[in-house]
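2.7 Reproducibility. Because tokenized structures are sensitive to small changes in the input, we list the exact sequence used for 3-keto-steroid reductase, including any N-terminal residues retained from the expression construct. No trimming or masking was applied before prediction.
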Amino acid sequence: MSDTTPQPEDGFYVLVTGANSGLGFAICCRLIDEFLHTRPQSQTLVLIITTRDTRKGTDTVARLQKHLQNVRRKAERSFLGISMLLHRRIQFRQEILDLTSISSVQRHAERLLNSTPKLNAAILNAGIGGWEGLDWLTAIYTLLTDWVHAVTYPSYKVSGVGWLTKPQIPASGNTEKPEEPPLGEVFCANVFGHYLLCHYLAPLLSAHKADEGTVGRIIWTSSLEAYAHTFSLHDFQGLASSMPYEASKRLTDILALTAELPSTAPFVARYLSSNRPLSVSKSKSSMSNANKNTIKPKIYLTHPGICSTGIMPLHHLLTYLMTLAFYIARWLGSQWHGVTAWNGACAPAWVALAQQNTLDAMEEREGKGKWGSATDWWGKERVERTEVEGWGWGGVVGERIRKKGRRRGVKDLTERDRKQFEELGRDCWKEMEQLREEWEARLAAARVGEDLG
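Resulting structure tokens (single pass, no recycling of outputs):
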């Protein structure tokens, strides 16, 4: 992307990772629709989508353009008050990003720092499941004995164990390749790659002045399957775990929900720091120099409920049967089975576009929470608070218990649980910062990419 790319005067810049299919594509479509209906016509949505290769990116932009055309035709038929100059109100940019490659994350961040004046939101959606198949006996038994629970909190997925990323430091000529520690593929794709990305993009996410009434938003995508028992500090990357996906989502919950606590403040401040020299400081980026009037971004946590996407490798027939099972669960009373990716995109799109005073008021009243995409029996979507083991619905002891959609066996929050969760959050933030600094130093010493830290 060129440094001379025109920037909208009143642009709303949103980055969506993993936008080429499933939930990521639905988030983009939902952002377009809701932006057009809720934002002033003078404002432009600049949607920055990331995919792993150019072909996927080009195809994604073409499909988003087609969606935009459909929105225009629908508006014309319905006489909706939407400007017909939609091409001026919605802009697309595509970027190549491989979250399992630290140098790819660094290059992507440098391109954005050189070409983008700010980021209003970064929706961290991309990731991998790491599953290899199903335990069919367990799947059939749990479906027959407890249908809704079985398709909401499955215990029959078979995961790969010990999956690693490709080497971060390639061999070069006759130079002896330095040894590097293992880096878990699921951990890197789901957590660490995004973590690094938002650290490098902190100048753009912080490019909002206090009088604007908004802040940059880092929006993590978690899951209902972020079980407490799957994560251990002793196996931080989940390399020995038989449930590495679930462990990565549990870590996501811990990081996001403890990001504003006093105990994590030193690590979070270092992570979101944007006043240190960057390797792109000599570029034309308007964010090269820190602005003392800007404010730090906020971190939010969402999940899509249960929707039918391609993250689980299944035969087409099994995918249809899985989708039917999800519909049946919803008809039996589950609020988490939105089934479609469009319904799953409800929570992340809402958090990205909601007014700042609305988000602030809700989290001040109910505590820091996990926002989930929920539906009623008919499939009408809404955003619901979701219980997190050890944190409850908002980290408030004695909060109102919400039985609908609650996972069986989760206990009410106690002061002891709350304290342990906060201590775990501090330890996780400390470990993440240490990992970041170690890998940046390692790659810088090997002259891989740029040292953006």
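The chain has one domain: 97-445.
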